[in-house]
Design goal:
Blueprint (H helix, E strand, L loop, with lengths): L3 H5 L3 H14 L3 E6 L4 E4 L1 H7 L9 H4 L5 H12 L3 E8 L11 E10 L4 E8 L1 H46 L6 H22 L7 E4 L1 H13 L7 E5 L7 E4 H21 L6 E14 L2 E13 L27 H10 L4 E7 L4 E11 L1
Parallel strand pairs: 7-9
Antiparallel strand pairs: 1-2, 1-5, 3-4, 4-5, 6-8, 9-10, 10-12, 11-12
Helix pairs in contact: 6-7, 8-9, 9-10
Length: 367
């Protein structure tokens, strides 16, 4: 074992090379910069997080467009002369970035004023934020489902009595007055059907191994057969996806609802060149709610329609929430329930810059 004096006699250049090697191998994103923003070194983890290449000699402020966020951090490091942490910073997408969304990260700042160096440690928060939002959505849907089922039962209980009384009354009325009891009966039947829909499916899942693309193609044939719309329907399938254990009929119902919704909304708002894209992908080590899965199937329904109004975005999957005159507000709620029965989740996202609306169905293969 080398003595302390032996360690101290290592050449300075050897120490520097060793430090650089350690930084390059770290899974944590690390960037070493001069106070001016000139990059001394940046490891592969930093390039992966930011989605761009960072070479020694580049100016970080120019390489990473950030509306003054990083330069403000550097100025604070210069003034305070001590380490500090800033949580959940958000940077816009970089030109040529491999990322699809804005970057959200925690930034630990360690200034070394003696050597005119600032060390940045970047910790990705996008996935953590996404997991938290998914978990909240999952819990909201579970609570909503319980409340809705209770409400539906309370609605159904008196309906049978009202219908029976109307039928008895109808027998005692002359023919011209019977139209009033018939109106009562028809409205009671409508409410009973609404309550049944709120209660959701009661049958056990009939799960079998199915090719998901076969299910989607069947749905798109149904949508294509309606000649009243001019929507261009595109497919972007991953052919390597394995079969998945699902209740085919229930999934077809969900796919049909999302597809028809997209087509109808684009038609109602007269979207220019209306387009619906269905995309399938596999996601590994993905968390749905609070459960982590080795492999998850993502099915995205992407259209260039206007999306949901801002005031109902957060409640889009709640029962009876709709802004469409002809809508019942049950389609998305029931779809979410059917997907949750498969231990999955439906997410909604609107990208205003790209002017596209996206519904993503997440279905786990195996825990």
């Amino acid at each position: 074992m080398p003595t302390e004096s032996a360690i101290k006699t290592f050449p300075k250049e050897t120490h520097q090379n060793f430090e650089t090697l350690v930084i390059q191998e770290l899974s944590t994103a690390v960037i070493l910069c001069q106070q001016s923003g000139i990059i001394l070194t940046a490891n592969p983890s930093a390039e992966t997080l930011l989605g761009v290449s960072l070479r020694s000699g580049d100016n970080l402020f120019q390489r990473v467009p950030q509306d003054g966020i990083l330069s403000d951090i550097f100025q604070r490091a210069k003034n305070e002369k001590q380490a500090f942490l800033i949580r959940e910073l958000e940077l816009p997408l970089l030109p040529g970035s491999t990322k699809k969304h804005n970057i959200i990260f925690d930034c630990a700042v360690n200034p070394d004023h003696k050597n005119d160096v600032i060390i940045l440690e970047l910790h990705d928060r996008q996935r953590h934020k996404h997991i938290r939002e998914e978990s909240e959505l999952w819990e909201q849907q579970s609570i909503t489902k319980k409340i809705t089922r209770q409400l539906a039962h309370e609605i159904k209980n008196p309906l049978a009595g009202i219908r029976g009384s109307a039928q008895l009354l109808e027998k005692q009325l002359a023919e011209p007055q019977k139209r009033f009891t018939q109106l009562v009966i028809s409205e009671v039947d409508r409410l009973a059907l609404l309550a049944d829909n709120l209660l959701g499916p009661v049958k056990e899942l009939n799960k079998r191994e199915h090719n998901i693309h076969s299910c989607i193609q069947h749905v798109l044939q149904l949508v294509d057969s309606d000649g009243s719309h001019q929507t261009s329907i595109k497919r972007d399938f991953d052919p390597s996806l394995p079969e998945i254990n699902i209740d085919r009929n229930q999934l077809v119902q969900v796919f049909l609802n999302l597809s028809r919704n997209a087509v109808q909304v684009m038609q109602e708002h007269k979207s220019p060149e209306p387009t619906l894209l269905i995309q399938t992908r596999a996601l590994s080590q993905y968390t749905i709610g609070k459960q982590k899965h080795k492999l998850v199937l993502a099915i995205r329904f992407i259209d260039n329609g206007p999306g949901a109004p801002k005031d109902i975005e957060e409640h889009l999957f709640f029962p009876l929430v709709t802004n469409r005159a002809a809508g019942t507000g049950l389609g998305l709620s029931i779809s979410q329930l059917l997907i949750q029965r498969h231990e999955g989740l439906i997410e909604y996202k609107r990208d205003s810059k790209l002017k596209r609306t996206e519904f993503t169905i997440l279905l786990p293969y195996l825990n």
